[in-house]
Amino acid sequence: MALGVGLYFARRAGREVDEFFLGGRSMPWWLLGTSMVATTFSTDTPNFVTNVVRLGGVSQNWLWWAFLITGMCTVFFYAKLWRRSEVLTDIGFYEIRYSGRPAAFLRGFRALYLGVFFNVMIMATVTLAAIKIGGVVLGASKYQVVVVAGTITALYSATSGLWGVVVTDL
Q: Distances in Å between the alpha carbon of 54 and those of 67, 106, 166?
């Protein structure tokens, strides 16, 4: 299904850079914000919640329920401001908001920390969860799951641009 969505939006995304990365700046702020929050829920989330509750009891649900507050802020506050600023990335926001050497350090640090370390950790946990689910539900080997899921994800992301990613998030 995700690959079909990617192919559907491929022509639209191929028009220009703004169309691919920003959806032509035509998406409403609430759709973008909802997608940002939906992106944080993936195959590893049920495993995380189950482990937290198993180890600490039902009261530990507050660890992830607290994200409801930040998620609501993202949808109804930050997404609107982000949209109005017309930047491409959060680093672009820092570029227009802050200046000087400390700002350059912050941009570099965030690029390395979030762009490399944090994304590698997130992709590892999501991939591990997909391997576990694919093994139990489909009887697939870890290599099959990684190759098939990785190929589908790369294809729809690379061809559909932001529109395809947002639609598959929702």
A: 19, 38, 33
Residue 116, CA distances (Å) to 13, 86, 122, 158, 165 in order: 26, 24, 10, 19, 20
> Taking a C-beta distance cutoff of 8 angstroms, is the pair 162, 21 a contact?
yes
pLDDT of 85-138, one tens digit each?
Answer: 888 777 888 888 888 888 889 889 988 998 889 889 988 988 998 999 999 999
> For the whole model, what pTM was predicted?
0.71
What token pair was written down for 158?
């690379």
CA distance 95 to 91: 6
Q: Which two tokens stand for residue 146?
A: 């990684």
Is 35 in contact with 47 (CB distance < 8 Å)?
no
- pLDDT tens track for 10-66: 776 667 777 777 777 788 878 877 887 787 777 778 888 888 899 999 988 888 888
Query: According to the model, what pLDDT value does residue 78 have?
Result: 77
